[in-house]
Amino acid sequence: MFRYIALSVFLLFLAILLFRTFVIFTPDKAIFEPCSSTSDNHSLHFDQQRLQAFQTLLQFQTISYSEDRQNVEEMKKCRDFIKKHYHGLLKRYPNFVQLHSIAEYSLLFSIQGKNSSLKPFLLSAHMDVVPAGNVERWKHPPFSGYADEEFIFARGTLDDKGNVFTMMEAVQEYLNVYGQPFRTFYVALTHDEEIGVAGASGVSRYLSEQPFGRDGQFEFVLDEGTVIMEEAFPTLNNPLALIAVAEKGFLSAEYRVNVAPGHSSMPVTPTAIGILARAIDKVESTPQPSRFGQGPEMSLLLTVTPYLSFPLRLVMSNMWLFGPVVQWVLTLKPGTNALQRSTTAITLINGGEKDNVLPTSASATINHRLHTADSCRRVLETNRAIINDDRVTARIKTCSEPSPVSPFGKDVYAYRVLEQTIRQTFEQSRQPIIVVPGLMLGATDSRSYTNLSKNLYRFSPFIYRHDDLNRLHGDNERIRHKDMQRGLNFYFHLIVNNQLENLPLPKFKSEF
Hints:
The chain has about 500 residues and is α+β, with helices and mostly antiparallel strands. It folds into two domains: about 50-245 and about 405-495, Aminopeptidase (3-Layer(aba) Sandwich); about 250-290 and about 340-400, Alpha-Beta Plaits. It is built from 15 helices and 18 strands. It has helices at about 1-25, 50-60, 70-85, 85-90, 155-180, 200-205, 270-285, 295-305, 310-315, 320-330, 335-340, 375-385, 415-425, 465-470, 480-495, and strands at about 65, 70, 95-100, 105-110, 120-125, 150-155, 185-190, 220-230, 240-245, 250-260, 260-265, 345-350, 355-360, 360-370, 390-400, 435-440, 455-465, 480. Strands 3, 4, 5, 7, 8, 9, 16 and 17 form an eight-stranded mixed sheet that branches. The chain has a four-stranded antiparallel sheet with strand order 12-14-10-15. The protein has a two-stranded antiparallel sheet with strand order 1-2. The relative contact order is 0.18. The model is unreliable at about 505-510 (pLDDT under 50).
């Protein structure tokens, strides 16, 4: 009798696992027709004329070194080039296209729609770039814009002039094809994203005085962000598009020890350096608590689940049982570990004055990137408990709290349009693209736009291979011609698709 009961329980348990694996978690369906070059579904091409214009944009050395040091003359040239290159928009459509100068070097294009009752949206990108580093390590000069048959090489191709150019070309194409849109939208091109927020803050202040901006009712804001990854997950052959629905916070804290002076011939132990060394070793070797399941990382994993192979699909479909195992697996790689917790990095250390003098003080800076379920105060309290030594004092140098998690899912209009436009642009018949909510590990201009909308998304419409990740802010930054073409079409169709007030359920052609 007991054997039959045990067998029944086991079969029921197995049935639950399999039901969740193959019934509950199933792939989603597309609602827009794929982007093509047919007459009824417009497609843009990254032709020679566009390539030459993009190369010119890349040749401006718009380098941001620090908060008080920027290549201003090159930024002026870049700004003036964009104004001149897209001046035709202001000339042809003066009744509904305007250009505003923000914080002297940033630009804000305003495209007024016919229907003032529709909530506007904002597209944002930045013109400044980080320094190129040692140019001897570059295959081609970092500001030459050199192009071969597959790539364009230059600092800023990925971050973020690729977005600047494809965004503006898409706006120009849309207006030339359709004229005035139904829904108002704005395009912000900022000048100091890499070092500050003057450009984005100025844009935010201006838009907060416009309709729907006063009460934070913009339909959505889309800024640079996460990308499309290939070979991103074990057993997953599909490309994975991540829409960052939140942004990690940033905390830099200085930890300091002060003691009485002394001579090295009669040392008192531990010294200030010794006390500090023990403290930072404890912090570095003790990870911040896992916040697995408290942020967008859980939704990311569950959205991927239907596309995984068995038995990994069974594991991911049943987090109620295998959650602790998945959490442990995430800790094995820095990239995945960063999704589930606040990270810790010792970035600066200082102490001592002379070889034979005991140091009276020592200090170290610890940098944390905060998970959305954490806060500056919470991480500092955790560190204090880990160090457990009142001789070590903490001082906050910089604190930027994590962003709110933006709404996502099938029932959120803004996220749904963005998700479906990605599928429309990038999906292949034999290899459907998977679109998932994700977490932005770095900081973007979007942190300045929280007053405009609760729907803040961070996404760059480019496909990355694993070796591309190191090129971002690294050597030999480059972008594929194919990615530029897909970027053009992504932004074009995003503008087209957002002229709708509601999304119909069945698949339909997206052009009017």
